[in-house]
Automatic annotation (TrEMBL):
Alphabetized InterPro entries for the sequence: AH/BAR_dom_sf (IPR027267), PX_dom (IPR001683), PX_dom_sf (IPR036871), Sorting_nexin_WASP-bd-dom (IPR019497)
Protein name: PX domain-containing protein
Any single GO CC term annotated in Swiss-Prot or TrEMBL for this entry: cytoplasmic vesicle
GO molecular function, one term: phosphatidylinositol binding
Segments forming a coiled coil: none
SUPFAM superfamilies tied to this protein: PX domain
Cross-referenced Pfam families: BAR_3_WASP_bdg (PF10456), PX (PF00787)
Organism in which the protein naturally occurs: Coprinellus micaceus
Compositional bias segments (type: Basic and acidic residues): 234-245
Length: 708
């Protein structure tokens, strides 16, 4: 910063009338000239400065010096040239300069807020030209009755080209001088979460006391049951303990509560006089023993395939509005945590079976994502949400959680981490690498969801193909073409032959009929697999969708904190306190990235294994039925077929109109993710079906033929 006097733009004196020409170029605002050679007066008149003592008192010097009183301290004042026009405020004793004005820099590193009359460093450049220190300089007398001493000048100092840098470099000086170091974007997560305020000012939260140590004024008094801590005191201590978070080496979050799982089930419809009808869901939390297996693979197998019986479980009833309260409270109390988005309020029909089931699945995935987070798992509002079984207790304590203020900087102040827990090289590149990875994962998951929809459609097409093959075989042995009457044999008990009482053809006819019925069962398996098992897998893919949007706040906070850390640690004015607080925020963001890394492995491992298990189960059912149909053609099962007459197949009735089974209803698509750009809602599918129903041709009859 440079301390400079403000030149008066409106003076009371009149300029002297000069007959000679004068220079009205870049220096005209600083001096009038008449002589042909540069002089000391010229240099005095073209430079503006103020003494350091006057700058300290935030006042401008008006005293006059003698002609011979020169300033010979060139080391104290550096010649400079203004790069941009700057309009100062008189009430702050700021300067008005124009581009090209020559100035003297007395203190380039002065940043104390008490020093007034300063000029941002980005508005001037140091003059390193040979003319910069060629002549000694004398303070210029100034006053209302004194005019600048002028002489005509024909030779002006040359302008030396200098690199002024990019314009974006001027913003840090604005931030420090005008905004007190705060960010210009007041809507970024770095600001709204309280991280910026914590970095700049810290937090007013006092260190928590030792909750296990009784107050010292109690002394050795006799224990009394009346002195036990009441419920409110226990809640207060529990809240304080839940607000303390720890980061271990890695950095990664330290788990204070063992993992557990939550099941959302048994939705039911209730009615209220105030809110009308609504749906409630039973939420059961299962807690398992913590006996760790010796082998890691054995632990994974136990967790995913053969879970131990829970040692305890708690069931409560909640409605969707209660989930909204939970999400709001978690967002306010855990501002530095990347929380999953809450499912949308309504997809289509409010009480339809498809909607209720879709919401139940989304709420179950949401709450399990919350309890899997090592910090959100022991949040007080989550414990209250999952354990409060009394309606009266819920109504009494719910306003307390709703009235709690946002944690803000206090959240970061209650995070404890080891010293030197960060690698400077890692934190510098972590945000870019993490953002690129999450964006790539998000795009791949969106493509995977789209392709998996085609896989489900392919299963439906496979079901239709198997069913059509079954009808064709049945039409073959009955001599009944599709969509026509029966011909080819005299009675239903006769075999597929022109001979009477042909036992060989009777056995073959019944075996082929068994194969036809088996193919119908295979078609049903394909259809059910696409509509139920694969739909659940398709819905589960939303758990891994849009990671870049979910962790956008973490990335923004990390980048802003790295910038503040570099300024505090490597800037011209190092600040150890700010650097230490930046390390706390960076430990949190790096721990969040580590949490995503862990959950990503769990999510995709579970997603892939569930898909494979579903495929294996479906194909095992298909193989079982195909094996049974195949044994029909081998003795002795094949020989026993001739002992009884053939019975009509239950699918022969469909031969007259097979299109009823060959054109099934459209697949139910997963409900959209909150961050999906294009809605994929069942209501849209219903509207599309209605339009297609009116516009498409049925081949014969009216459009209402599809209804019967």
């Amino acid at each position: 910063m440079a301390t400079l006097p403000r030149p008066s733009t409106k003076s009371a004196f009149h300029r002297p009338a000069l007959d000679a020409d004068f220079d009205s170029g870049i220096n005209s605002s600083a001096a009038w000239t008449e002589s042909n050679k540069p002089s000391i007066d010229l240099l005095r008149s073209t430079r503006r400065y103020v003494s350091e003592s006057n700058a300290q008192h935030a006042s401008l010097s008006d005293e006059e010096l003698d002609e011979g009183e020169l300033i010979l301290g060139d080391d104290d004042a550096q010649p400079a040239r203004a790069l941009y026009a700057f309009e100062g405020k008189p009430e702050f004793r700021e300067l008005d300069v124009e581009a090209g004005d020559e100035i003297d820099v007395l203190k380039a590193d002065e940043r104390k807020p008490a020093k007034l009359g300063l000029l941002p460093q980005s508005y001037y450049t140091i003059d390193h030209s040979p003319n910069g220190k060629q002549y000694p300089r004398q303070k210029e007398p100034s006053g209302d009755s004194i005019t600048p001493r002028g002489s005509r000048r024909s030779i002006s100092p040359p302008l030396i080209p200098q690199n002024t840098g990019e314009w974006i470099a001027t913003f840090p000086s604005f931030r420090h001088s005008l905004l007190g170091g705060k960010s210009l974007n007041r809507f970024s997560t770095f600001v709204t979460s309280g991280a910026e305020e914590f970095v700049l000012k810290g937090s007013t939260v006092l260190p928590e006391a030792d909750f296990t140590t009784p107050p010292s004024n109690q002394g050795h008094s006799r224990e009394d049951t009346a002195a036990t801590i009441d419920e409110e005191e226990q809640q207060r201590r529990g809240r304080q303990e839940a607000d303390r978070h720890f980061v271990s080496a890695g950095p990664s979050w330290k788990e204070k509560v063992p993992p557990f799982r939550v099941l959302v089930h048994s939705p039911s419809k209730l009615a209220s006089l105030l809110s009308g009808a609504y749906t409630v869901y039973n939420i059961t939390s299962f807690f398992h023993s913590q006996e760790a297996p010796e082998d890691e693979d054995e632990e994974r197998l136990t967790d995913e395939h053969e879970p131990d019986d829970p040692i305890a479980n708690v069931t409560v009833q909640r409605r969707f509005s209660h989930f909204v309260v939970l999400h709001t409270a978690l967002t306010r109390r855990l501002p530095g945590i990347a929380l999953p988005p809450l499912p949308e309020k309504q997809y289509a029909g409010r009480f339809s079976d498809d909607f209720v089931e879709a919401r139940r699945g989304d709420l179950e995935r949401y709450i399990n994502k919350i309890v899997r987070h090592p910090v959100a798992r022991y949040a007080e509002i989550l414990t209250f949400f999952l354990s409060c079984e009394s309606d009266a207790e819920w109504k009494r304590r719910l306003p307390e959680h709703l009235s709690m203020p946002p944690a803000g900087p206090a959240f970061y102040a209650r995070v404890y981490h080891p010293a030197f827990n960060l690698d400077k090289e890692d934190i510098a590149d972590a945000a870019d690498l993490f953002e690129n990875h999450t964006r790539a994962v998000g795009k791949s998951v969106q493509s995977l969801r789209s392709i998996f929809s085609k896989v489900r459609e392919a299963r439906i097409e496979m079901s239709k193909a198997e069913r059509l093959l079954s009808y064709s075989l049945l039409s073959l042995i009955t001599s009944k073409p599709l969509s026509s009457s029966s011909t080819g044999f005299r009675t239903k008990t006769e075999p597929w032959c022109w001979r009477s009482n042909c036992h060989e053809c009777l056995k073959l006819t019944k075996a082929i009929q068994k194969t036809s019925d088996t193919l119908q069962s295979v078609a049903d398996i394909y259809n059910d697999h696409a509509r139920r098992t694969q739909l659940a897998t398709h819905e589960s893919m939303k758990t891994t969708a849009h990671p870049s949007s979910i962790y956008e706040g973490v990335i923004t906070t990390h980048r802003a904190t790295v910038s503040r850390y570099n300024e505090a640690a490597n800037g011209p004015n190092p600040d150890d306190d700010v650097a230490n607080r930046c390390e706390t925020v960076l430990n949190i963001t790096m721990a969040e990235m580590d949490t995503y890394h862990t959950q990503k492995q769990e999510d995709f491992r579970k997603l892939t294994t569930e898909h494979i298990d579903g495929e294996i189960q479906a194909y095992e059912q298909i193989l079982t039925r195909l094996y049974l149909a195949r044994r029909t053609f081998d003795s002795p099962a094949f020989d026993e077929l001739s002992t009884s007459p053939r019975k009509s197949s239950i699918y022969e009735r469909d031969l007259a109109n097979p299109q009823a089974k060959l054109n099934p209803k459209p697949l139910t698509q997963p409900c959209p993710h909150v961050f999906d750009s294009t809605p994929m809602r069942p209501v849209s599918v219903a509207l599309q079906e209605g339009v297609n129903l009116l516009l498409s041709s049925t081949g014969r009859g009216s459009v209402f033929s599809k209804f019967w």
